[in-house]
């Protein structure tokens, strides 16, 4: 595991919790030193007991170089900062030190996997794994194929993730945003546009989603829902509404304006809405509580 930040610690704990041995590295001494505490805290929030936590921590070896982290790896996950040159450099180093059969995965949010992996000698074992935050609580991992990725690498990764209790989904083409972020940001584009056009305020957008279709999204996807209500009704709705939906190719001017004014969201105390530190803490805690409760409800 390369990178021991927000995503790296959660990916490492997920794999170790599933019984895998994990070697993890990070150039920041503080990230390495604080890793056991952060893993233990996440496990506590997940309801893991002390004995389980001790066992999981014993399977996570913290090392101080990429070479040491990948030397014996069957799978390498990279979760370093979202900078293309940094990731390309890391994969050159990973390829130089990992066993020849190891499958190499980047956890980039949106950057093309093909571009990240373009310098590798063997691109057939390289792919993307897009885990979602928090990686130990969100089941989905998108497994992204480039035109060079072998079927063996994809299916090997799908098996590892399924065995670790995740819900892996194949993304057959290396498109920006993969599947989940394309869908999510199609929704965000219209959400921002509704506010920009004065149709409602930001709170109303969020209330509409949370109090209506957001409630059923976890058990009824949009295409299942289209089949449920009928393809004919879906076609009639699209005939009326699609032409009025936001379809500018670039970001909203309102989003640019907020960014330019330093209204960056919860971290600056204001974005689309104002946030006190207490409200920010409450939102974060509510999300974790909700995800944990869903785990119990949605288990088949
Ligand atoms: N945070 C999210 O919601 C999220 C979701 C999906 C994917 N991602 C992606 O996962 C990756 C990691 O994101 P994060 O949120 O964990 O970031 P983060 O800042 O929490 O962690 C990044 C870690 O990488 C370390 N690092 C810096 N230079 C490095 C190097 N040369 N080699 C190895 N490690 C290095 C940093 O010290 C830090 O600990 C990014 O590509 C990000 O886009 C993030």
| Rg of Cα set | 21 Å
The domain count comes to 3
Give me the oligomer status.
single chain
Biggest sheet layout: 5 strands, mixed
Superfamily (CATH H level) name of the largest domain: NAD(P)-binding Rossmann-like Domain
Helix count from the secondary structure assignment: 14
Compounds present?
A: nicotinamide-adenine-dinucleotide
**Lateral strand order in the biggest sheet:** 3-4-5-6-7
Proportion of residues in helical segments = 40-55%
Principal-axes shape call = globular
Low-confidence parts lasting 5 or more residues at pLDDT below 50?
Answer: none
Cα distance spanning the termini: 31 Å
Q: What order do the helices and strands follow?
A: HEHHEHEHEHEEHEHHHHHHH
Q: Give the second-level CATH assignment, the architecture of the largest domain.
A: 3-Layer(aba) Sandwich
Query: Would you give the CATH topology of the largest domain?
Result: Rossmann fold
Report the CATH C-level class of the largest domain: Alpha Beta
What features would you describe in this structure?
With 300 residues, this protein is of the alpha/beta class. The chain has three domains: 6-171, NAD(P)-binding Rossmann-like Domain (Rossmann fold, 3-Layer(aba) Sandwich); 180-251, N-(1-d-carboxylethyl)-l-norvaline Dehydrogenase, domain 2; 262-300. It has 14 helices and seven strands. It has helices spanning 6-17, 29-45, 50-58, 66-70, 84-97, 113-116, 151-163, 180-196, 202-210, 213-217, 222-229, 231-241, 253-260, 277-298, and strands at 22-25, 60-63, 75-78, 103-106, 126-131, 140-144, 167-171. The strands form two sheets. It has a five-stranded mixed sheet with strand order 3-4-5-6-7, with helices on both faces. Helix 2 runs antiparallel to helix 3 (50-58). The protein is globular, with a radius of gyration of 21 Å. The model has no long low-confidence stretch (mean pLDDT 96). It binds nicotinamide-adenine-dinucleotide. The site of nicotinamide-adenine-dinucleotide (NAD) has 23 residues, from helix 1 and helix 5.
């Amino acid at each position: 595991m390369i990178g021991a930040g927000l995503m790296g610690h959660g990916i490492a704990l997920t794999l170790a919790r599933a019984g895998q041995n994990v070697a993890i590295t990070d150039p920041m001494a503080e990230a390495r030193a604080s890793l056991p505490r952060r893993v233990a805290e996440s496990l506590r929030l997940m309801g893991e007991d002390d004995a389980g936590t001790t066992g999981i921590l014993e399977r996570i070896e913290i090392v101080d170089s990429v070479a040491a982290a990948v030397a014996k790896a069957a799978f390498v996950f990279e979760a370093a900062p979202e900078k293309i040159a940094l990731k390309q450099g890391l994969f050159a180093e990973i390829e130089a030190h990992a066993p020849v059969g190891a499958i190499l995965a980047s956890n980039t949010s949106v950057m093309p996997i093909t571009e990240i992996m373009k310098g590798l000698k063997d691109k057939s074992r390289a792919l993307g794994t897009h885990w979602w935050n928090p990686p130990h609580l969100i089941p989905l991992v998108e497994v992204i194929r480039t035109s060079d990725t072998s079927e063996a690498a994809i299916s090997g990764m799908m098996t590892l993730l399924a065995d670790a209790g995740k819900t892996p989904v194949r993304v057959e083409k290396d498109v920006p945003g993969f599947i989940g972020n394309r869908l999510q940001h199609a929704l965000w584009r219209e959400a921002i546009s509704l506010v920009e056009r004065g149709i409602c305020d930001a709170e109303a957008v969020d209330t509409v989603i949370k109090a209506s279709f957001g409630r059923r999204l976890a058990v009824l996807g949009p295409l299942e829902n289209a089949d449920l209500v009928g393809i004919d009704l879906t076609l009639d709705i699209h005939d009326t509404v699609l032409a009025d939906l936001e379809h500018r190719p670039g970001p909203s001017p309102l989003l640019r304006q907020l960014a330019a004014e330093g209204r960056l969201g919860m971290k600056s105390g204001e974005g689309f809405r104002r946030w006190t530190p207490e409200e920010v803490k409450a939102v974060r805690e509510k999300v974790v509580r909700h995800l944990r409760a869903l785990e119990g409800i949605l288990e088949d």
